Amino acid sequence: MKVLHLTSLFPYSENHLHDGAGGHAVFHLVDNLRKEMGKDSQQIFFYHPIFAPYYGFISKAKLYNHSFREPSWYPNLLYRPMVELPRGFLRYMTRPLWQRLVSAEHVQICKYDLIHLHTTLDLGILATRMKKSSSKKLIVTVRREFHDRTWGRLSMADKNSARTAIQASDAITSASAVSALNVKELFHKEVSVIPNGTSRVFDRFTEGAERNLKTILFVGSLDKNKNVLLLIRVFKDILREEPESRLKIIGSGPLESTVRRLVDGYDNIQFMGRLSKEHVRAEMCRAGIFCVPSYTETFGIVYAEAMKQEMAVVARSDTGIDGHGIRGRHYELIDHDDELGDVLLTLLRDRNKCEMLGKNGKELAMFWNWEVCARQYIEIYRTVAASRCGIAK
Question: Are 53 and 61 in contact (CB under 8 A)?
């Protein structure tokens, strides 16, 4: 069986595999599918904006302009040009128009047994055209576009692209329990929830590591969505009541200069910049509370990484890992920004609850790995392929 993956999210080079460029889940999934199904069983069409190298002149958007000039670095990764403009430059008009006009590559598609779409907003209409022109079955993976905070803000054109793909799909998957529920309510179609895995580095756990439960750790891109500025502001208020508490921040991004300015002069706040996976895991073993109060996350692989290191995780409801476990037992969630301070203070003061969340969270996340994820997808591929042939599973 050969599967064609369509995505506009993929690490632009091996150096970007663990930064904020996106597409890590697609990379890890395909990598493990090849191990299970054969190295030539998976093909990736990576669609990227043809005008991206010039965005720097007209937009302040966070882009990796240099990466689009790099050659293909991953086996069977085929670059495809995508006409997309930055936000504010008729982007929401050009994206669906391009999908309707670009070639559906009928000759290429016929080489594969199944089509797997990973980005519905960018490629939903195109994937549907490919399915119709080739009569291939279509598997659609939905991300955070179906979270309430995201769906309500999408343009009508983007909603139509996602809706078109969902309605044409033969199977739907998601790493997000929240997205799965919303898709079922909106379209009355079942969604298979498959948690993402983590790097094998985080499958290791150091027993007996010296852990400071008064330390809060943030790991992620320094941008508005990850909400690191809220965490810093809340932590400064916490210091008045818990002066022994500490905050460590790991990451880089567009808000890095702002973060450096805000933490300057605070001995209890340490900005560590970007670290390797091994060093991130070491810091997770030393801290007690993990907090990334993102507004939206499809799954939030970093939460799983922290849970595997027995940290008490604080995230946001209706996004990310919400729905994969039980609130208050496997992790803590906030509904609104103004709840963050109280939740963190409770954990800083209640050692038993902090340790309980860490142990239960580790127990939940220990089976979240890419090998299991790949096998679940293979089962879906086989079921869909069998239905095409009229074979009972």
Answer: no
pLDDT by residue (tens digit) across 286-314?
999 999 999 999 999 999 999 999 999 99
For residue 217, list its beta bridge partners.
Answer: 248, 290
Q: What predicted TM-score, i.e. pTM, was given to this entire model? A: 0.90
Rg (CA), the chain: 21
Domains along the sequence of the chain with CATH: 3-197+370-388 (3.40.50.2000), 200-365 (3.40.50.2000)
